[in-house]
Every structure is written in C-alpha cells, then in structure tokens.
Amino acid sequence: MSWGDEGQVGEARGRGLVLRLAFGAMGARVVGLATELGLPDSIGDAERTAAELAAELDLPEANLNRLLRAMAALELLTETAPGRFVLAPAGAVLRTDRPDSIHSFVRMFTDSTMVRAWERLEYSVRTGRTAFDEVFGTDFFDHLKGDAELSALFNAAMSQGSRRTAALLPEHVDFGRFGTVTDVGGGDGTLLAAVLRAVPALRGTVFDTAEGGAQAAATLERAGVADRAAVAVGDFFAGVPAGADAYLLKSIVHDWDDERAASILGHCGRGLAEGGRVLIVEPVLPDTVRPDISPTLYLSDLNMLVNVGGLERTRADFEALCTRAGLAVDRVVALPPESGFCVIEAVPA
C-alpha cells in the first residue's frame, strides 16, 4: 500500500467516524425507545417475530419491524431470518431481570429531561452556565424533587451505574481499618451495602436527601446488612453526621462547582473522627486526552456543565479542591480500567 493509499484509508475511516457521531443522537433514541417499550424483556431468551411483538405492544407491524431492524444494525438484536429477532449480548443488558441490567440507567440518560438541555450546549460553552436551569426554570436536583417517578428512575439509574464500582471498591480499599463509614449522597445504598457485606465488623450510614435515600433502607435490608446500617436524611451543604471514621463520596463531587464541592468536602473533613479519611470516588482526567481513555468521560464532563453545573477533574484539580476544603490528598488509588474510577484518599490538612 502506498502512502497515498494509507491517507485515503485514513480519510475514509475519519469520515465514517464523523458520520457515526452525527447519527449518534438517532441511535440513542432507538435505544431509549427500546427500553421504554420493554422490547428486551418481551424478546427475552426466545426468538420473536415482528408480528408477535407488534400484537403484544399494539403497534403497526411494519413500523415496529423497522425499529427492530435498526436495533439489529446497532448490534442490540440479531435478525435470524426476515422479521425474526433474538437479543444480542448488548441488547440483553437492557433486560430488567438481569443482575447486570442497565435498563434504568439507559432510560434516565435517554429521557427528555436529561437530553433537552443538550440542545443548548452552545449556551453552556459560551457562558459557563447550566443550560438545564434555563430550559426548565430550576436546577436538576430541584426538578427531581418535584417528580417522584423521575426521582425513583434517577435513583435506580445511579444504583445500576454504581454496581460494578461497588463490587470492586472493597477489593482495592482497606475498609477494615475503619469502624464506621458514612456514604454521603449514598442514594439507594448500593455502594454502602457492598462495603458492609465485604467487611462484617463495619457499621455504616447512608446520608442523603429524603428523595435521594428513599430506597436505601430496602436495599440494605435485601443485602442483609440492615442491622449494621442506618439511613440519615439531611443536606450535605448544611453539614454531615459527625464522627465517622470514613466519609465515602461516589459521583458526588463532580456534580458541583469548586465552591460547592469544597463546602461538602469541608463538612466531611470537620466531621471526621481522629485518624479518619475522606474517600472520593470519581473519574480522574489525565492531563491530556489519551486514546485509551473512553470518550464517555469527556461527554460526562460536558453533561456536568450542561445539566448540573459540575465538572470532571484532573488529579491537580482534586488536590486544589481538597486544599480549599482544608484537606490534603494522601494518595490516589486507581480502580480497574473497566470501572473508570479512582479513589482519592484525603486527610485533614
């Protein structure tokens, strides 16, 4: 192959990449509608026809067949014969009956509440302001408070998004050195439940708003750790329950700008028992974009800008943030790459 041929191949690949990105919103909507209709559950382990599914869902067969074929093209289904479909591995994780399901996560991140503000991406990039507030007239978390169904979906999405990290965290962080841990913004308790299961002598508390922690007690009960766990309701901008040996914050700090994030961390630092630690579980951006880093990390950074007003941070950013909060970063533990998270351990400065 000549140099000119290599250049042409590179240009063709680049053009293909750009076209896939340009059609990305359409693909996301296909995935979103598939979860809304419950198609992965309807197909299950069987081979189903478009006619059968159309009758179940009361949809025109021809139109549903077009949707199913698009799902097959996106590798969510396999079309075994004209109009006959089975779930592909990617589509199977959209079933609600699987322990590794990401059904709620996909529902949340393809919901109009999450995507509408992205139409105002330019506004956020130009001004640094949160487009969500402009579109909905309130901030993201206050909006959730006014919609119980959406709040429950968000909690379920965060639970599904935390399961892999919850399984990995106790293997890479020594929780045995602590007697008590408070999961700040702990949502439905998925993370704390995994930690308590791994360390039988540990006691813990989920601390969140009434809406955020609404499902926590049930999660802790199902995990068999309710006798060593409590659920506390409050506002982490006002304070946190005092006296924990460790404060655990997963995917909390990135929701907020430096001023508000430092306020949360400051409360944690001041609440620590002697010798305690603040454990911040977040992605850590490299200093420069690397090809081995998932683009999702940078899309998440923009999502923080557009929808909630936060940001993803580098190690230097976390060090500066902790200094502002009266803490010092002691070490950063990288979880396995498939997790995408690190644990930033901080101590009072």
Content of β-strand:
15-25%
Spatial ordering of strands, largest sheet: 6-5-4-7-8-12-11
Distance between the termini: 60 Å
Number of helices: 17
Largest sheet properties: 7 strands, mixed
Active site: 254 (proton acceptor)
Domain O-methyltransferase dimerisation: 20-94
Protein name: O-methyltransferase
Domain O-methyltransferase C-terminal: 118-327
List keywords for this structure.
12 strands; 7-stranded mixed beta sheet; alpha/beta; Rossmann fold; Arc Repressor Mutant, subunit A; globular; 349 residues
Describe this structure in words.
- This protein has 349 residues and is of the alpha/beta class.
- The protein folds into two domains: 3-94, Arc Repressor Mutant, subunit A (Orthogonal Bundle); 161-289 and 306-348, Vaccinia Virus protein VP39 (Rossmann fold, 3-Layer(aba) Sandwich).
- The protein contains 17 helices and twelve strands.
- The strands form three sheets. The chain has a seven-stranded mixed beta sheet with strand order 6-5-4-7-8-12-11, sandwiched between helices.
- Helix 4 (50-57) crosses helix 5, helix 7 (103-109) crosses helix 12 and helix 12 (148-172) runs parallel beside helix 13 (190-198).
- The longest helix has 25 residues, at 148-172.
- The chain is globular.
